[in-house]
Design goal:
- By secondary structure, this protein is α/β, with parallel strands linked by helices.
- The protein folds into two domains: 195 residues, Rossmann fold, CATH 3.40.50.720; 174 residues, Dihydrodipicolinate Reductase, domain 2, CATH 3.30.360.10.
- Helix content is 33%, strand content 27%.
- It contains eleven helices and 18 strands.
- It has an eight-stranded mixed sheet. A six-stranded parallel sheet has the order 3-2-1-4-5-6, with helices on both faces. It has a two-stranded antiparallel ribbon with strand order 13-14.
- The longest helix has 19 residues.
- The structure holds nicotinamide-adenine-dinucleotide (NAD).
- Nicotinamide-adenine-dinucleotide (NAD) binds next to helix 1.
Length: 411
């Protein structure tokens, strides 16, 4: 079988920081073949090609750019041609703004492509259901790239929680605050009040993780959002405080923002503490997810926004290391997560011949629950839908109902 081709739709920050280098590494290993990248404008593609980190890591590797590098137009629909140009049952990787995921994923499925998408899958449960049905009908994979699941600490916690070592989750807090400078990025053009908010953008990671570890389902969400202006004058809910209640009565507080000081060490601040109870004792599960024990103080200021002389880098999300052989090798759960999903698509194509065999393997992925799929992580879209309804209603409680057609409604 020839290696699968990959088309990456979206060429912004996450494409640069994680998705494209992971695809290059898989290409280097012969797991995938040709890579195309499509963005709205050629300038995005040029900055991917000019990236010093990526060029150093993958000398001699490149992608087919859409539009052409010399083109100065803006293309909102070019991704349709790129997807149509792929032979059936290859891979489309989706890395466009949150509110565009649905259109791109459906386009890919209608052209019989497997899909890897950055989180969140989509913004409503109804759209997620449609994606699930279309993918299942055609025997296609849709893997949602919740990379925190592939952090070994999450997998350790999941295994131990499910073996009963912590008891039952009761009260918890989680936070993920990105640095202030994010406000100056392309975010200001789309992560605005009407499209998204800090909870939708990054809070979903910890909601997903609490389910991933405990197996509990969220049943109620309230999100209080504070609006701030971006440098270009657009308004966004750039600070959010959410309360998520679970089906055993547990409560998780989640704080998110684009507001962690640029001068602070680490590329963000994040972590989670879960207090639990069992066997007449208290259980505790605490993860410091930004401070991972490294303290560096450089002798010259590093380049790039948010880069500080004193730094606490995470070795665990995504780093390039020199293992010899030319170039650099990406390591960390950011890479492992993409690797896992792409290899699942490759397994489907190489080991499951008929539609029924592919469906059987897809059901196995759903049941194992390691990779988030539309069928096994619907709670995420319900939380996001509930969160959007809540934040637009001043933080009112929104309940999630799972019986019948899953739905959300103001309490
Ligand atoms: N921690 C995470 O998991 C994480 C981190 C960052 C971003 N993300 C997700 O990744 C997605 C993209 O975020 P980003 O930070 O890269 O955004 P970005 O604003 O930096 O880049 C968006 C890219 O999408 C492209 N795009 C927009 N509309 C398009 C269209 N119609 N056709 C083709 N390309 C189009 C733009 O040209 C740009 O290259 C979002 O859904 C975001 O939530 C996830």
């Amino acid at each position: 079988m020839a290696p699968l081709q990959a088309a990456l739709i979206g060429g912004g920050m996450i494409a640069h920081d994680q998705i494209l280098p992971s695809l290059y590494q898989l290409q280097r290993q012969g797991v995938i073949g040709e890579i195309s990248v499509c963005a709205t404008e050629a300038r995005f593609l040029k900055s991917l090609l000019d990236s010093e980190n990526i060029s150093k890591a993958f000398p001699g590797q490149s992608f087919r750019p859409f539009p052409n590098l010399s083109d100065t137009g803006v293309y909102l629909d070019l991704y349709k041609q790129v997807i149509a140009g792929l032979p059936p049952r290859n891979i489309v990787a989706v890395a466009v703004p949150d509110q565009l995921h649905y259109a791109v994923i459906m386009e890919a499925l209608r052209h019989d492509q497997h899909v890897l998408t950055v989180k969140p899958l989509v913004l409503t449960a109804a759209e997620a259901a449609e994606i699930e049905q279309e993918a299942s009908r055609r025997g296609l994979l849709v893997g949602i790239e919740y990379h925190k699941r592939f952090d070994d600490r999450s997998l350790m916690a999941r295994r131990r929680y499910r073996e009963g070592w912590f008891g039952e989750f009761r009260l918890g807090t989680a936070c993920l605050l990105e640095k202030w400078y994010y406000r100056h990025s392309n975010f200001q053009n789309w992560c605005t009040v009407e499209n998204s908010d800090a909870f939708t953008y990054i809070g979903c990671h910890y909601v997903d993780l609490v389910h991933f570890i405990t197996g509990l389902l969220p049943v109620s969400v309230s999100v209080y959002g504070i609006k701030d202006r971006y440098p270009n004058g657009n308004e966004g809910f750039l600070w959010t405080d959410a309360r998520v209640l679970w089906n055993n009565g547990a409560s998780l507080n989640v704080q998110n923002a684009l507001g962690f000081p640029d001068d602070a060490p680490g590329s963000n601040t994040q972590g989670m503490v879960l207090y639990c109870s069992g066997q007449q004792k208290g259980g505790l599960l605490a993860h410091s997810d930004q401070y991972r024990g490294l303290e560096y103080s450089y002798v010259r200021p590093p380049e790039g926004p948010g880069a500080t002389v004193y730094a606490e880098p995470s070795p665990d999300y995504f780093q390039y290391v020199d293992l010899g052989g030319g170039g650099l090798v990406p390591v960390g759960y950011g890479y492992r997560s993409v690797d896992f999903i792409i290899r699942a698509a490759v397994r489907l194509e190489s080991q499951a011949g008929t539609l029924e065999e592919r469906r059987q393997m897809l059901r196995q992925f759903d049941e194992e629950g390691v990779m988030a799929t539309p069928a096994n992580s619907r709670y995420n879209e319900l939380v996001i839908e509930a969160g959007r309804l809540s934040i637009l209603n001043g933080g009112r409680e929104v309940r999630i109902q799972y019986e019948g057609e899953p739905a959300v409604a103001l309490a």
